[in-house]
Amino acid sequence: MSQNAIQLAGLVFGFAGACLHTVAILRADWRISDPGGPGKSMSKSWIHIDGFWKECIGYTTGEWHCDGFGDFFLRFSTYLILGRTLMIVTIGCASLAVFLSLAGMNCSTMLPEDSSLKHRIYKLSVLLFLLSAISATIITLWSAIRTSTEFYACAQQQRNGQKINKGQCMRFGQALYIAFGATSFCYMALICGACSSNQTNASQDRPFKMYERPPYVYNKTKQAQEYI
Q: Residue 228: inside a domain, yes or no?
């Protein structure tokens, strides 16, 4: 595969990852309540969803009541503070990486062709994709581990015969799956950018071959004809 095709694929993956991360962070269904509890059918009377920016309760009538976490920022839990921060870092780095990779691509005309600045900008976009992928991995895995831990703790309480409040047991929401998909796109963009940078370095480090001028061939026949 050519270097231009790899760079274009990385640009597409990075743009898709940035868009999906934006969709995921704005959604409220990172966690969905399971009113029936583990192993039981879910109650259809209401549903509770929980995200980074708001939590909502929906009823079968189609009515939703949402709380946008209007308290002071420092009063939030560590999960909310770090979750919001990491998601903002993820979206910001991915968006900036997309713009820089677009400027640093070989087929781009935003910068002079074959300039060292162009290669440096593209390498910077690869580093931003790496930072975006790492921060996205941290928050998605943290949210998944936190939700699964609380769910199995709820199941253990149910097996012990303890009373479980409605909405206490939470399971994975659609936004978490979207975030996992967006993270995979960021890693694909990172891989494409790293492969393209390696090809660029290999072409720059290739030694220049000096081709010698072919030796002069003495033509005795032609000289003899000119002498006559």
A: no
Classify 76 in phi/psi space as left (phi over 0), alpha (psi -120 to 50) or beta: beta
Under the banding of pLDDT at 50, 70 and 90, the label for residue 96 is: very high
Cα(186)–Cα(224) distance, integer angstroms:
75
Q: Is residue 216 part of a domain?
A: no
Residue 77 — pLDDT band, cuts 50, 70, 90? Answer: confident
Q: Is residue 92 part of a domain?
A: yes
Q: What is the pLDDT of residues 199-228, one digit of tens each?
A: 655 555 444 444 444 454 555 555 545 544
* CA–CA distances in Å: residue 44 to residues 51, 103, 157, 166: 20, 51, 22, 12
Structural domain includes residue 182: yes
Could you give the number of structural domains in the chain? 1
